[in-house]
Structure formats: structure tokens, C-alpha cells
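--- STAGE predict ---
source: upstream dedup step, 1 unique chain passed
mode: sequence only
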Amino acid sequence: MTSPSQATVTETDTPGLGPEGLNSKEKRKTSALTGRSPGQLMWARFKRDRTGVVSACVVLFFFAVGLLAPVISKIYGKDPYTRYGQDTPGLLINGYPAAPNGGISSEFWFGLEPELGRDVMMQLFYGIRNTLGLAVAITLVAVLTAILLGVAAGYFGGRIDYFIGRFIDLLMAFPNQLFYVAFVPIVGAILVAPEDEMPEWLRAVIIILVMWFLGWMSLARLLRGQVLSLREREFVEAAKVSGASPGRIIRRELVPNVMTPILVQTTYMLPNFVTSIAGLSFLGVGLVEPTPDWGRMFHYAADYYRNDITYLFFPGLAMVIFIVAFNLLGDSVRDAFDPKRAR
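--- STAGE serialize ---
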């Protein structure tokens, strides 16, 4: 026998009316009575949030630009490495674009880079590609580490919780930015001989490892607290009584119930890593020439802005839009999962 909470409205519930004959009130009733999963409810709340939807579209646009940068380069007919200003006489005068507004024209949509004369738009698009690629890799590794250690500390407790907690306290005592700046060149010097040039892939791996090392602790602490409150719940006790192993309980019972803080915190972690990577490049310890880099464009703009403020405009505007959109997306995801919480 079907319980009232499981009942749904069908065509037979409304005599004489087919699906096309239902009025708006009856359609709302049908929708309200039809069972939906928590994921469907979250998606429905998110779609009603215009700010969240617009922010998601902006974020997806940036990722699309990064992924499709080589395709855009072929269509546009320019690349981020060729020094067009030096190869073509008249494009640069005393190292700066001859045309107004940084050399913006129908040929160079975002203008030319001072001194080297490279295309600013392709420098920016490939810089977004490289920066977002590093940020996504760091975020994935950091989130996996936080899930592994945070959930283990909360579920097992005792000595495991104590040692993981003290390890987290130790790492959180390090000043992140200073650690990044100091250890990226140190690790590189250990792995590469002084007379050799560090490969770009190795520099990227070092940046990922160094930033991951101090990037997972906050989420791990949050997950530990969540699991501490969940491990005494009835469904966990029932799984223990049924003979489920700790690994199965963690995978099937605990991790699905902490996906909300994981998703929300991930939307905050990734833009923080983007700004940290840009900061390393600005300080000269991130990606180096000739690899395009978003942060290094700010470094060059600091030298050029007095004579060519346009060169700073596009990377600066893109960074502001991306960070704001991602933070607003994080707020919208949080509100979609927790509708009782006011923004």
C-alpha cells in the first residue's frame, strides 16, 4: 500500500482532464507532490538564483577560454610567442605601441605588449589556461588529502585524531605566502643543477607540490568536525552492527554526507589558488619566460603602466571578474545546499 507521502498526482487523479487539461494550480500541486532527490532540490534552488547562474556562466567561459586557447589562436591567426612588434616595423615606437590605446586594432584586439611586441590577447588566454590548469590540479590534490585525513581523524578518533590534529596545527603555523616564495626556488635548486635550466613541467610540478602542502588543512579540520558529529548517528551505528568495514562506512555513509562542505569549500579554494599562483609569478618565482602566465602580466604592467596603462587593463579586469564570479558562485552553491541560511 502506498503511503500518502509517496503518492503522486496522475491523469486519473483529475477526472476528465489529460495532462494538457491541468490548470496551473494543479500543475504546481503535481510538481510539489512528486518526490525529488536532494540533488534535484539543490539544482532547482540553484537555477532560481540568477546571481549563481550568471556567475557559473562566467566561470565556465573562463575555463572554455583556457581549454580552447589553441583553437582560438588558430582562428585568430596569432600566437603568444611571436614578437609581432619587433618583426613588423612601425608597430612599436621606443618600445611602446605606436597606435593609441596600447595598439588595439582590428589586427590586435587587445593591443601589443610593450618592448617585446607580443599579442596581448593570446598572452592572456594562454596565461589563463596555464594558471587555471595549475589551480585545478592543486585544488584536486588538496581536496583529496583533506577528505582522506579529515574524515579519518573524525571517524577513528584517539591517537589517529591526535597526531593528524597536531600535524595540521604545525602546518597552519607556517605563513603560506612566505613559504611559497621561499620554498619554490629552494626545491628547484635541490632537484636541478645550478648550471642547468629547470624544465617548465618540473617548475609546474614544484608549484603544485608546494602549494598543496599548505593548502588542505582548513578543509580537513572542517571535515573532521562534521564527521565527529556524524559518527554517532543511527545510520553509522547500523552499518557497524551489519558488519561493514571502516573503509566501507567511510565511503558509503560518511563521505556522501559531507559532500556539501566539500563542494562549497572547493569553490572558495580554487580562486585562492589562482591568486596565489599569480602572486608567485608577480614575484618572479612562478612560471618563467617564454611560458605565458597571467600573474607575470601584472609584473610587467607594473613597469609599463605609466606609459601604457592599457596593458594592465585586460589581465586586471579578467582577474577581478573571475575571482568575483567564483566567490559569488560559492555563495550560491552554499545557499542551494542550505536554503535556511540567509546570504
